[in-house]
Amino acid sequence: MPKQKNKTAGKCGFSHLIALMGLVVVLAFILLPNSYLIKKKPPCANSISCTQSFGLKVENDVVGIFNGQKITPPQIDLAQKETPTRVLGDSASAGKRVEVDLTTQTLKAYEGDKLFMETLISSGKWFPTPPGEYDVWVKLRATRMSGGEGADYYDLPNVPYVMFFYNKDVGRMRGFSLHGAYWHNNFGHPMSHGCVNMRIADAQKLYDWINPPTKSNTTYADKDNPGTKVIIYGQAP
Fold first, then answer.
1. CB-based contact 229:96 (threshold 8 Å)
2. What parts of the sequence cross the membrane (predicted)?
3. Which end of the chain offers a freer environment for a tag, N or C, measured as fewer CB atoms within 10 Å?
């Protein structure tokens, strides 16, 4: 009499194989290097400083680090009154928008159909500046930004004229902003970790013009004074 195959044993063996494969997939995901996960989706544009609360921070007579080089940040005197560089009416007026073209590495600011300013910028190099439509939610006269690791580590005190923006997909704590940059002069080419770098003079001009209207060294947008739209599009070279 021919010997019958044990069908139950075959099914059990197949089930065990599927379970083992599932376990391997789970372990592979858990054991992926943290650096890989961070590069794919970092917690924010400034991976160290954004784990703390965003706020005004002025630190004179300290040294910054960028691209492995020590950098001397600009001195900032909060007591010094600055003259706003408004050109097209009061900064509380509606119809303002900022457009950032990643392809050409340029920024244009409009009030209605009138061009307020146009300048070169530097978008994300180590992590891309995300395209989308955003709103400015807070303006800081200066703050500290830091992040990266190894040769990519940076620590930059007194980053001037910071305008943080957000939307429903890129939250406030991701730390993306428009701001002045003193640590390089390579505008027109990607140079940042996700933010939009500008020459300090251009950043000041935009900061004074953009909504919400500047009330102090820290100015939050609210329902009565909403932030200006920031529209980012294109693809960085």
1. yes
2. 12-32
3. N
- In this prediction the pTM is 0.77
Cα dihedral 162, 168, 173, 176 sign: negative
Is the Cα dihedral 62, 142, 52, 126 positive or negative?
negative
Active site residues: 179, 195
User: 45-233 falls under which CATH superfamily?
Assistant: L,D-transpeptidase catalytic domain-like (2.40.440.10)
- Residues above pLDDT 70, as percent of the chain: 72
3-state DSSP assignment of residue 202: helix
What distance in Å separates the CA atoms of residue 100 and residue 123, rounded to the nearest whole number?
Answer: 9
What count of other Cβ atoms lies within 10 Å of the Cβ of residue 73? 21
* Three-class HEC string of 15-73: HHHHHHHHHHHHHHHHCCCHHHHHHHCCCCCCCCHHHCCCCCCCCCCCCEEECCEEECC
Q: What's the residue count for the chain? A: 237
Phi, psi of 30 (to 5 degrees): -65, -35
Residue 99 has a pLDDT of 98
Q: Which residues contact 124 (CB under 8 A, 6 or more apart)?
A: 45, 190, 192, 193, 194, 195, 236
84 within 8 A of 214, measured Cβ to Cβ: yes
Neighbours of 185 (CB within 10 A): 9
Q: Where are the domains of the chain?
A: 7-39, 45-233
DSSP state of 141: E
